[in-house]
Amino acid sequence: MSIEPTHRGPAATDEAPGQPRLCRRALFGGAGAVAAAAVLSACGAEADQSGADGTSAAPTTPPEPGPDAAVVAAAADIPVGSGVLFADKRLVVTQPVAGDYRAFVALCTHSGCNITGVEADEIVCDCHGSRFRLDGTVSKGPARKPLKARPAAARGADVVVD
User: Fold this and answer.
1) CA distance 96 to 102
2) What does the alpha-carbon distance between residue 153 and residue 137 come to, in Å, rounded to a whole number?
3) Residue 86: which of 19, 20, 152, 13 has the closest Cα?
4) Would you say 94 and 83 are in contact if contact means Cβ atoms under 8 Å apart?
5) What is the rounded distance in angstroms from the CA atom of residue 85 to the CA atom of residue 104?
6) Cβ count within 10 A of residue 62
7) In 3-state terms, what secondary structure has residue 81?
8) 13 compared with 44, residue with greater pLDDT
9) What is the pLDDT, as a whole number, of residue 46?
10) Which of 55, 128, 134, 136 is most buried, with most CB under 10 Å away?
């Protein structure tokens, strides 16, 4: 009397001879490596835009405003070495040096809170204490990215912004 086995042993497979076998351990290990590489490359890209203290190092310079740019203020109303918050337009306009007008979306890059004002030569977000220079770069965190710049320029006696 012979007894037939009811299961296949470890040597029996449905794969053709010579074909590589993919096990779950290899599959999940490979997926983990891909995820780790994606995280590391994202961290490296952010680090390239930051200074030694983790704050943004390079100011953003948008193109000149187009022909349909809107007048936001009289040039004389934007003080040299400071700026003005236009809360109703969610816009901050600065003049770091005479004749150099900059405009930024008045939302903090840390968590999207509204910018609360301009104090002397810094743009301020009171939500978590972030501060930005007049060129939009971070001077004090927790924000790490510069403010989003908008094209701005003086046209005659007015400051226009796209």
Assistant:
1) 8
2) 19
3) 152
4) yes
5) 10
6) 16
7) coil
8) 13
9) 40
10) 136
Q: How many helices (H) and strands (E) does the chain have?
A: 1, 11
Token pair for residue 52? Answer: 């030694």
Alpha carbon of 119 to those of 36, 75, 122, 134, 147: distances in Å? 42, 19, 5, 10, 16
Per-residue pLDDT tens over the stretch 10-20: 554 555 566 66
Name, in order, each residue with C-beta under 8 angstroms of 150's C-beta and a sequence gap of 6 or more. Answer: 62, 91, 103, 104, 105, 161, 162
Q: For residue 102, what are its two tokens?
A: 């900059």
3-state class (DSSP) for residue 121: coil
| Residue of 45 and 113 predicted with greater confidence | 113
Token pair 């934007």 is at which residue?
Answer: 78
- Dump the DSSP string for 1-17: -----SS--TT--SSPT
Evaluate the CA torsion angle 61, 91, 85, 55 in order and state its sign. negative
Average pLDDT, the chain: 78
- The mean-pLDDT minimum among 31-35, 40-44, 45-49, 81-85 falls in 45-49
144 DSSP assignment: -
Which stretches within the chain are classed as H helix?
24-48
Residues paired with 139 in a beta bridge: none
Alpha-carbon distance 37 to 58, whole Å? 26
